[in-house]
Amino acid sequence: MNFDILTLEGKKSGSLALSPAVFGVEVRADLLQRAVNWQLDARRAGLANTLTRGEIDRSKKKVYAQKKTGGARHGAKSPSLFVGGGVVFGPRPRDFSTSLPKKVRMLALKTALSSKAAGKNLIIIDEAAVKSAKTKDLAKSLEKLGALNATFIIDSVDTNFDRASRNLPLVKVIPTSGANVYDILHHEKLVITSKAVEMLSARLGTEEKAKPAAKAAKAAKPAAKKTTKVKE
Fold first, then answer.
1. pLDDT exceeds 60 at position 209
2. What is the pTM of this model?
């Protein structure tokens, strides 16, 4: 898979071969959904809290006499029956995060990258660096590149590029180590620097290389000798 390397102005500056094990994986919607839900669950703070009748700061004195009032029998005003009383079965602080196996997360990230490549929404640039920190100048360059609604995965942070991109509402800049499924799918285009492509390929391709090596080591391991007991 050969891709053209472009500049921020949209001009061709070279070509790069993409690893099919990272950018050519079969697109599976179920994996993408599981990864996105896993990320969104981890973002939930879970701080909603209601007070029970035991936590209400009200007098525990009996409201009125037990008999001869013509009304129902009541004790304190903290139960949920009264206005301002405690809440029954209300939300309490909790952890919404879920678990997702590492292999599934890695495969989902490969699937997200492959989906952008298959949909022709992948752009590879030589570097994410600009001379001016003005948002206006960067917006003009990204308009030529067709990446005004894009996620940028960069290998190194350029101060001017970082400052200029902050005021663009549909542009998200993340480092290579922070590449994730949600941010990749959240925007229309995916823009990666050429060095970031190499770093991602090395990071995600190690798992594929480890499998044959493990199988070869297992095959080379000598079988344990069976010992037979001799009856006396």
1. no
2. 0.79
